[in-house]
């Protein structure tokens, strides 16, 4: 039996909110779009970038969505070049990954980041070799489409019954449900507990040190539980 724990990145492994908000603000300015509240920008974290911009600017046309999305990528890249990207790991994440690995879990990532963005983030924290599968927005439809999880399971040789999706947004939870896997919503990220439960989270974790017991139990119940 292969047990597979798949993590979202932004808001689950790392706290990248300051970089995301500042890059989006720069992208909106570059395309002469009005500024948006911080909460609105954080609310779409998890979607692929074009879909995220479309959600933020529902009255704009698709060409505008694509231009703002490219401006966002350019702004984020420029921030990284200036050494201004701030993506610290959440406290307790490394220990949780260590404990899960010791407990026999294989680990993966499914994220709205690009291949390049995820690779740089994981390399910065020395985590690249922890994961057997890395799925990004570059090669899949946006969450909540289940494509990322389906390929991750194929990579690891896991089945839905032995796989858990861990994420901080209702997009993560909806993707997990679409793929038929158990889900753990985490409260240290960008969407609140009510949204995670409404999306169908199997369990709710309030701290990374709760992940090991929750993942062990996650496939045994469909009733949301808070550790």
Automatic annotation (TrEMBL):
It comes from the Bacteria. Gene3D superfamilies: HAD superfamily/HAD-like, Putative phosphatase, domain 2. This is HAD-IA family hydrolase. Pfam families: HAD_2. One of its GO terms (molecular function) is hydrolase activity. PANTHER family: HYDROLASE-RELATED, PHOSPHOGLYCOLATE PHOSPHATASE. Keywords: Hydrolase. SUPFAM superfamilies: HAD-like. It comes from Sphingomonas arantia.
